[in-house]
Amino acid sequence: MAFTKTYLVTGGAGFIGSNFVLYMLKKHQDIRIINVDSLTYAGNLENLISVQDDPRYVFKQIDIRDKDEISRLMDAEKPDYVINFAAESHVDRSISDPGAFASTNVMGTVNMLNCTMACWEANGGYEGRKYLQVSTDEVYGTLSLDELDSFFYETTPLSPHSPYSASKASADMFVMAYADTFGLPVNITRCSNNYGPFQFPEKLIPLMINNALDHKELPVYGDGLNIRDWLYVEDHCKAIDMVCSEGKLGEIYNVGGHNERNNLYIVKTVIDEVSKAVDDASINEDLIVHVEDRKGHDRRYGIAPDKIKEDLGWFPETKFEDGIKLTIQWYLENKEWMENVTSGAYRNYYQTMYGARKKA
Ligand code: NAD
Ligand code: TYD
User: Fold this and answer.
1) β-pairing, 81-84 with 130-136?
2) Given 37, 80, 88, 138, the catalytic residue
């Protein structure tokens, strides 16, 4: 089969990355995807069972900080597009271990930029090629609850507060520096909070779904009035696909849904939907407990997605009220996935599936 484009995707075994791999292989018949992932606690190859034998898909267990391995792979594959999803992604973990975030999110990105640049320079140049950095709205810092009509634009100054967002902002600045200094063809996407299938249950929505099903307490940080702008993961995948193929070089695109909700609203919606879906009235608001607030907890994120809408015609198709139903349905239909994640069994998956395979 002749492939039109080769995508090197990092972090493709994580939540958004695996949704992206599945989305792209379904949407485009003639592409090839190389998934590079070191399989940290957040990487789960079970997400990709449906494509593991697809001849258009290859998995490589490599750390994005490993210069030799990434260079070797790039030289062998000569990708048209490099899309960097790989990151440490959980704010609470960044508060306990900031160094891990600096290492993967900053130094890993710098290594990806260096290896991409070296590969393309040695193999035909930059024409028709692109490096896309998947970033976050958290780099802009926080908005206040008093001015609900103010939003993050691409021109909003970076003002990160958590070690996670500081590492992502730093990575973004390296990406732009490589564009300005070396002419590397890049885009950055800055997305709001995603939700949907395959999200690790340390993040708000899957944690609440899982705890509600187990009749466990639902821990709400502080007063629960912090606002996030929720985007269904498939809408994010569409945006990345569009920016990759049509985004103007050197541009940053905000990706968000005007789906702003506070945390208490999210938790109460999860309670209502889960209780209805499993017909269990004991799943109710009595499960909510307010716990100590997160340190440096950003009050509100609100994306203005005007530029990606005007320039590329992207808009979020899934309303929160529909997306949350789809998400809860998915978790109910995939209880084994959740059990494997919470028990840690998913970590044996690689060994079971790949350990005994001979190298081709
Ligand atoms: P995730 O934590 O679910 O997945 C991260 C993946 O990266 C995992 O598969 C992990 O094994 C891999 N990884 C981590 N360190 C690595 C390393 N050193 N080398 C190779 N692979 C490594 O994250 P996610 O929620 O899917 O987020 C993906 C990207 O999107 C991240 O860059 C994140 O900052 C960004 N983002 C996420 C959200 C969100 O709501 N989840 C919102 C905006 C932006
Ligand atoms: P999270 O899913 O960790 O995403 P982020 O911090 O990147 O926005 O958290 C979303 C919001 O939910 C955030 O305001 C923190 C809050 N939260 C809770 O109240 N309880 C929890 O158990 C978690 C994980 C998050």
Assistant:
1) parallel
2) 138
**Alpha-carbon span 344 to 342, nearest angstrom:** 5
| Cβ atoms of residues 113 and 184 within 8 Å | yes
Question: CB neighbours of 356 closer than 8 A, spacing ≥ 6?
Answer: none
The reported pTM is 0.97
Backbone angles phi, psi at 59, to 5 degrees: -110, 135
Is 266 a pocket residue for ligand 2 (Cβ < 6 Å)? no
pLDDT tens for the chain, 360 residues long, are: 678 999 999 999 999 999 999 999 999 999 999 999 999 999 999 999 999 999 999 999 999 999 999 999 999 999 999 999 999 999 999 999 999 999 999 999 999 999 999 999 999 999 999 999 999 999 999 999 999 999 999 999 999 999 999 999 999 999 999 999 999 999 999 999 999 999 999 999 999 999 999 999 999 999 999 999 999 999 999 999 999 999 999 999 999 978 999 999 999 999 999 999 999 999 999 999 999 999 999 999 999 999 999 999 999 999 999 999 999 999 999 999 999 999 988 888 777 766 765 555
DSSP 142-159: -B-SS-TT--B-TTSPP-
Q: How many CB atoms lie within 10 A of CB 289?
A: 10
Distance of CA 267 to the CA centre of its chain: 21
Nearest ligand 2 atom to the CA of 90 is 3
CA of 220 to the centre of ligand 2 (A): 8
C-alpha of residue 13 to centroid of ligand 1, in Å? 9
Write down how long the chain is.
Answer: 360
Catalytic residue (choose from 63, 137, 241, 298): 137
Question: Which residue has its alpha carbon closest to ligand 1 atom 15?
Answer: 87
According to DSSP, the residues that pair with 220 across neighbouring strands are 290
Residue pointed to by tokens 């249950």: 201
3-state secondary structure 296-347: CCCCECCECCHHHHHHHCCCCCCCHHHHHHHHHHHHHHCHHHHHHHHHCHHH
